[in-house]
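Hey L., structure's done. Input below.
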Amino acid sequence: MSEQFRITGGCLCGALRYEATEPPQSMGFCYCADCRKASGSGYIPFAMFSSKFLHITGPMISYSSRAAAGRDAIRNSCPVCAGLVFGGPLGKTSSHSIYVGSADDPSWFKPTMAIFVRNRPSWVVVPPGLQKYEALPP
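Output:
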């Protein structure tokens, strides 16, 4: 573990918080319809973190919807301000996606992939240099 690595973030009002003490496993942009609707944007920037190095505190509400891969996608928000913070059922998976817009300082975000580009609206530009996947990476 990197002694000095630390990422913090949370919702708009600060009730739901997280701290990551290891770098993300992957980073990118998701253009699927669900992420677009959840974020209110053309895509959502995400970073995947190992659950072992991610500490989440505070109240949360979870929303489940059927994902493109056929399983349930869980999105977690603050019940106070409704800020979208992370994905995945807390305590039940080996990793979680952090929605990068919730980071206190997102300068660490270095995306390498674009997923579900088949669903990208024509008005959204994929940044150059990213590995593009029509759906999920293999």
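The chain has one domain: 7-132. The CA atoms of residues 12 and 22 lie 23 Å apart.

-- N.
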